[in-house]
Amino acid sequence: MRILIIDDEQIVLDSVSHILKLNFTDFEIYTARNGKEGLVQLENVRPHIVMTDIRMPGITGIEFIRRARRFDTRVKIIIATAFDQFDYAKEAFRFQIEDYVLKPLTKAKLIELISAVVEKIKREQNRRDIELESIDKLYKSLSIVENNFFHSIINNRAVPHMYSHYRELLGLDFVKGRIVGLEAIGLPDDVNWKQISDYNSRLFDASESFRSAIKLDFDALSSDVMGNKIFGYIETYDEDDLEKLSQLLSGLHDEFINVWGIKVKSVIGPIVEIDQMNESYEAVESLLKHSKEKVSVYSTSELGSYTAADLIAFSEDVFGKVTSLDDKWHMSWTLVERAYLSLTANPMYACEAVDILSLLFMKLVVLFDEEGGNSLSLIQSGKINQFILANEQSKLTLTHNMMDTLVRMLSLGDRNYSEIVSKVMDKIKDCYMEDLTLEGLANEVHVTPQYLSKVFKQDTGITFKTCLTDMRLTKAKVQMISTKDSIKDIAYQVGYNDPNYFVRLFKKVTGFTPGEYQKVMSK
Hints:
With 523 residues, the chain is an alpha/beta fold. The protein is 61% helix and 11% strand.
């Protein structure tokens, strides 16, 4: 059983963890120092029980519970706080918490409280087992059984002894298979409730096409609509049916658009043993977040075969290229990506691959500090903590972002510039938010604009305009990550009087709109 403890006082986390370890030996105990960390842990470990404080920096306990309930309606939540205001308790019980207790808790009270919740979970599990064992009832509603199967896979709470019931009720072997996922995309943000209701209604009807299609051509199961996604379980032992499955999903893509007016994308997960089906699901979820293809296949074979030694060598190579500002660092990074993804796809090597990437990330942080950056700002913005808590795929993205930041910083750092260019570089660093022009700076250093443009490119390797743009966008990224300022205000702060131009420029340079960049960096 998994329990998550959230409190901003380390002594509370340590003491509660110690008591639980001594008295609940089968517990997996996780901790978080605030509500934001708690939400990350909630998604990563999917606990059965959460004990949280109310007043914490950043996201409060009440806000944590509100968001947690959107994600997991079953998790048992206990509030342990020093605040006894009635309004807190009233608000908390709206979200179906188990108990609201006041600190300090005695050891006996804590054990009694957790024991009661554990017993409740066991009773609920027994009830679910009894329901599943009641074959006559479940035969009348097999979709309940199917959805129970998918929820157990998604929440990584599959109970092995229930597979015999699934086999009997659903007529599948449940030995090996894969998860497929279909996600509806493209719903505009500025829609009203009536349009959302209509969209959801069409998606529900369209999901029946998905359900019928996969069951007609395969030994398969289908979930209900989950938000904007539908999942299927395809029973298979090899890749012989991959082309057929790809064609089916491609056809469904066209049908969803032409018949239901809904744009979708699909992902085919890897084949795994039934007790590892959550891995296939996680692979599908990961690829759905990043893929832009109509139908994508999660396949490690395309990545090639790599060893930990390869990943170490590639990491050292890309670090060397970053420090020397070699433009080919992007090519070296591609090798790091491929080796890392290949290794993390194999449970035997995943931990070692994560350790190697973590070492590269920390070397980049140290270099950032040595070259004039401020490692404290990385800590304060939560980026180091975010890397520690991130999943395998996100660690890769964060490391790449760190490298990109370093290259830009080093490109603008002190070099053996001529006196004229040094003065201009200092002006850019100090006054990037002002209306700087090549003509104005040329006048300040007493040369013609043409001459300044020439020597600036010779010394820096880039144009004055590119240098100024890089500086402004780098500062804008920091603002987006570390503040809650609007995109409009950030545009003004870094020197752009036209926020619309700033958005277009940011998109052109980074590949993201400012809003998209904020979402990516906050994940």
